[in-house]
Amino acid sequence: MSHIVIDKEKCKACYLCVKECPKNLIKVGEETNSLGNHVIKFDDPNHECLGCAMCAMRCPDLAIKEVYRG
Ligand code: SF4
Ligand code: SF4
Fold it and tell me: First-to-last CA distance in the chain?
């Protein structure tokens, strides 16, 4: 099962990854990190993630630290 791992402390809440995901699996979360940013959350109830890593490549802060393709 494909999925991503987010380094929440690195997320600056630019939401470029939200727009990039072809399956719309990344959402603005309610949780905040120590900088007060609303960090993203990976929301994939139907296991649609492609493991394409487009989100990780788009992130300027390397906050999507791992992508598993399953
Ligand atoms: S692109 Fe990176 S910094 Fe921007 S919201 Fe996504 S994970 Fe956070
Ligand atoms: S790996 Fe691809 S499909 Fe999965 S969350 Fe990232 S952009 Fe979306």
Answer: 4
45 alpha carbon – ligand 2 mean position (Å): 13
Question: Does the global pTM surpass 0.90?
Answer: yes
| Each residue's pLDDT tens digit, 13-65 | 999 999 999 999 999 999 999 999 999 999 999 999 999 999 999 999 999 99
Measured from the alpha carbon of residue 6, the closest ligand is 1
CA of 12 to the centre of ligand 1 (A): 6
Structural domains present in the chain: 3-68 (3.30.70.20)
**Atom of ligand 2 at shortest range from CA of 42:** 5
User: Alpha-carbon distance 70 to 14, whole Å?
Assistant: 27
